[in-house]
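dude i think i finally got it to work??
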Amino acid sequence: MGWTVLGASRPADLREENLAVSYSEHVPALCAYVNRLVLGDQHKAEDIVQETLLRCWRKFGTTDAGLLRPWLFKTARNLVIDGYRRSQSRPQEVQGLHRVTPQAAEIDEIERTLTSVVLSDALQALSPTHQEVLGSIYFQGKTIEGTAQSLGIPTGTVKSRVFYALRSLKLALQERGYPAPSVPGVTHQR
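look at this
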């Protein structure tokens, strides 16, 4: 991929000139990173890098120059994930002889891994009591009564903690930019 970044058209526009210099430093690594994420699809990688740079030009301030590279990589990663999710929400497109590819299993594994990383991070944001009650019920498979007995608390307290833990988990997932699943009986109010 041959990317050339032109300097600012007006010397007075220091912001664009600084971004152009920064782009030149980060674009080759960003292209390689995105190319790996899209499993070598050169056209898709170029589109994602272009959209990332466009978003950077529109939104990123020059006061945070040290954060530009992580911002670019996170934005590109989010665009890849959004594109993947968008493609999964409609019937799979058939293109010539590429009807079924072994890459589909790899993408599913990547999605599961990304989901588990985000979920693990969100769970760490919960209080220890909420982690404990969710771990007992959802990960160990105990009932409300079994959890109450093992934790030595009333069943009503377990129900209350589960309710508030799920609500906190939903908020933690939303804060991380992940669409939180709807949980029956749990609504988030701001």
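The chain has seven helices and no strands.
im so relieved honestly
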